[in-house]
Amino acid sequence: SASDKWSDLRAGDAQCGTGSCQPIQGTGVCTYADSRLPESTAFVKVSILPEVATPEANQTHYGDPANGCEADEEAVQVQGVSGKFCSPDCASAACPTDVPSGVTAAPQCALQTTTGDKRCALICSPSDKWSDLRAGDAQCGTGSCQPIQGTGICTYGAGPSPPSPSPPSGDCSIPTALQCAQGLGKCISQCKSGLAACVQCLGGDFGTCCPCIKKIDPNLPIQCPGSVPEFMIVDVAAIKAAAAQTHYGDPANGCEADEEAVQVQGISGKFCSPDCASAACPTDVPSGVTAAPQCALQTTTGDKRCALICSASDKWSDLRAGDAQCGTGSCQPIQGTGVCTYADSRLKFTTMQLV
Predict the structure, then answer these.
(1) DSSP 234-287
(2) What local confidence, expressed as pLDDT, does residue 331 receive?
(3) Residues 205, 184 contacting (CB under 8 angstroms)
(4) Residue 78 has pLDDT above 50, yes or no
(5) What pTM did the predictor assign?
């Protein structure tokens, strides 16, 4: 068992054969009922290894920064959004698909920093309506779904929305310093390690503390009053468009960095196709698509590429049923099967053939 909860232990019984799952230091081990062994029988006393008894808090991407982030992640806070989260880079690779336990929100390459870096987030709501966000909470595991420019992303530690603090005056007055001290007390160790960690810890209190921080060191790269310094800002101006960008889309809307616009010989329409010569086909698909990505195409030079397979045959009835799997595309017949394509657009494309 991964925990010492009664329900998990009882489920664990089924894994123990004729034994039972017994609780120990937050996990469960299989044991057998005591038997009357000779008094001379020697028993060995053991204890649970720390790495088993206390698993790492974040063993997936997109976790709570309070528990530490993965090696390829950074703890980020989106400007205007309450809470933080661990965010992997997606400038050169697709967003990782492993998510914390209980999370069903979809990872998307949806964020961009002021320096142009692209990062992933968990998109939990297609709108910023209260009802959609509260439904989105259920997709965020132990996090919550926070609104930003018409959509929602999962964050941790957001808590209830506090009343807006009065805007800082721009001067480090005694009242400002006293108000700042209340938030600064919990961030002393972070502030000793550097400005970025200090600002991240202060969160909403930074606007209040900014004048006093600036007074201590006028050369710091911050402007007061303000919510966060420029180097900490995440630009989400294109978050809705970015959230909609996946593999296998319509070339008329642009393809992902690892895709090409292709047309299969003998088929009407085109589509964006990722490479699969050295890696498996990406599983993220456009909204409304249920067709399965497969490494099914090969160029005349031997390169292999992915396509959305929407029909197991080229029968008209199967293809029309396959249309429903292609979202805004259509299911086109080729060599006894069907692939999803989009209406022709005036773009350069690569000609492919079915493997």
Answers:
(1) EE-TTHHHHHH--TT--GGG---TTEEEEEETT-SSBEEEEB-SSSPPP----T
(2) 92
(3) yes
(4) yes
(5) 0.36
